[in-house]
């Protein structure tokens, strides 16, 4: 009994209490509204198609190994569900490693646990911990790199192996997603800047990065490319050459970056008014969260005014030099700025900010006056909000309904389907059938068709009339459905209806969703 009590009261365990909570939530509340990318990655793993994708080279192979491991244990889960479980476990492991880093930085167990709660309750982490996307695993490996790097920096007699392992984990993170190059770069620059023997330290950390080009060289033949430098370059940066990724410096990108930075911590979406109309009691949540956040800010303000007193009263939890703790904080501050800068350059890409809460915690550990109670209140507010408006609805409610389309499209090859989200349907068909090439009768909605090179509204209408004359029916699901205050509605509005003016539209079927029915509509020429 005494051993049990000691284990429960151990500071290393206490700092991980929030980790267990977030892990349990992530495992119990996987999203039931997976993204088109989630379906695509699951299809690739399930049918072993395109396992080595350049932008996140090792994610699908890791998923394949995970599903095989579960099968060895006798657990024959649906592939998509298994991959969501993998990410939930990776999120829990990430929080555990973060807690170890904060403990190494000599935070009190209460303050460390509060920071872990803030990070774990952030929507950026919860969103991808409950989904099959490629953003949580690289955070885990980058944090492992930072853990080894921090141990090396704070050790009384640092061992070279610690720096080598830091380089290994940081390089592996880049193989799971290229965006983590900036985390690796920050640790490399911090290594060179603060080391006494700079060249030796840089080599110890940097040499493991050769794993990255070696892995891409090994993967190149799977894409049937010649083993040449130009082919390797195009393979590594495939998404940029294919137009799937890119960016520019613009005011628009900066605004999106600010908006998505907020959404990294707090779920804000155009579906919230509909949720509040359906469940008015949810209106209590913003009030409670605002009260908790206000109390947290007041407590933080009071502590900041008394920080000299708090610092002198802080318990001595170790003998590590504060200067070396500052090295860790400053290095991760640079990484944080680099990641945010690239996310802003990439049109404020929210997926490129998943690592931000963890980096904020490491940098925030330098605010020794920050009271644990303020951080804990903020963490509880974030968790309550994101459960109410993020994970809960995503698990319990159905935002889209493609079941009928998945049966109608293969059964009617002579019919054109102009779909609001064609890639989602195509990836779901890929997952179901194992055929990576989708049926040719699936096309985007009219608003997207007219944006293709060489297309226009007049050409779209002429094509519609030609198909009618050829006897090919045209169906669409982009008319008369729910209107949410989301990005698509703000950008496109009612353009689909405007483009189809002059044609007869007849509703043939409806698909129930939480936000209201979506309709399958036939487009035909007026007599």
Automatic annotation (TrEMBL):
Transmembrane segments: 108-128, 135-152, 164-189, 201-220, 240-262, 274-297, 352-370, 376-397
Protein name in UniProt: Dolichyl-phosphate-mannose-protein mannosyltransferase
Record keyword Transmembrane present: yes
Keywords: Membrane, Transmembrane, Transmembrane helix
Record carries keyword Membrane: yes
């Amino acid at each position: 009994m005494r051993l049990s009590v000691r284990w429960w009261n151990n500071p290393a365990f206490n700092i991980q209490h929030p980790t267990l909570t977030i892990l349990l939530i992530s495992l119990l509340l996987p999203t039931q509204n997976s993204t088109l990318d989630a379906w695509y990655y699951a299809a690739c793993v399930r049918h072993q198609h395109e396992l080595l994708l350049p932008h996140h080279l090792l994610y699908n192979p890791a998923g394949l190994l995970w599903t095989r491991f579960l099968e060895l244990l006798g657990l024959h889960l649906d592939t998509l569900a298994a991959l969501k479980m993998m990410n939930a476990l990776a999120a829990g492991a990430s929080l555990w490693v973060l807690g170890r880093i904060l403990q190494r930085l000599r935070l009190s167990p209460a303050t460390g646990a509060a920071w872990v709660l803030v990070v774990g309750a952030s929507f950026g982490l919860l969103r991808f911990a409950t989904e099959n996307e490629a953003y949580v695993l690289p955070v885990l490996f980058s944090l492992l790199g930072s853990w080894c790097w921090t141990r090396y920096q704070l050790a009384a007699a640092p061992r070279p192996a610690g720096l080598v392992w830091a380089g290994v984990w940081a390089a592996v993170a880049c193989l799971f997603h290229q965006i983590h190059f900036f985390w690796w770069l920050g640790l490399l620059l911090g290594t060179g800047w603060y080391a006494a023997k700079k060249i030796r330290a840089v080599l110890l950390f940097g040499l493991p990065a050769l794993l990255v080009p070696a892995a891409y060289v090994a993967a190149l033949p799977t894409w049937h490319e010649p083993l040449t430098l130009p082919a390797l370059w195009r393979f590594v940066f495939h998404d940029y050459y294919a137009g799937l990724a890119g960016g520019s410096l613009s005011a628009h990108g900066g605004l999106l970056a600010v908006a998505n930075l907020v959404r990294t911590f707090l779920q804000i979406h155009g579906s919230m008014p509909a949720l509040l109309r359906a469940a008015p009691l949810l209106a209590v949540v913003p009030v409670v969260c605002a009260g908790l956040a206000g109390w947290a800010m007041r407590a933080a303000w009071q502590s900041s005014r008394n920080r000299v007193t708090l610092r002198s009263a802080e318990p001595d939890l170790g003998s590590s030099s504060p200067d070396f703790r500052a090295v860790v904080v400053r290095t991760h501050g640079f990484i944080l700025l680099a990641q945010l800068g690239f996310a802003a350059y990439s049109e404020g890409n929210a997926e490129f900010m998943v690592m931000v809460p963890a980096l904020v915690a490491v940098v925030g550990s330098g605010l020794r006056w920050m009271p644990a109670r303020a951080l804990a209140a903020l963490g509880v507010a974030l968790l309550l909000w994101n459960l109410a408006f993020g994970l809960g609805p995503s698990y319990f409610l159905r935002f889209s309904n493609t079941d009928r389309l998945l049966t109608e499209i293969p059964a009617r090859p002579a019919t054109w389907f102009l779909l609001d989200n064609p890639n989602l349907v195509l990836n779901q068909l890929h997952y179901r059938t194992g055929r990576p090439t989708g049926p040719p009768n699936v096309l985007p909605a009219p608003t997207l068709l007219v944006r293709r090179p060489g297309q226009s509204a007049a050409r779209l209408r002429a094509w519609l009339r030609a198909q009618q004359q050829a006897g090919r029916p045209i169906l669409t699901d982009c008319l008369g459905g729910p209107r949410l205050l989301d990005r698509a509605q703000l950008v496109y509005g009612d353009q689909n209806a405007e483009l189809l003016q002059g044609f007869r539209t007849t509703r043939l079927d409806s698909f129930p969703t939480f936000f209201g029915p979506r309709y399958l509509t036939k487009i035909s020429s007026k007599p």
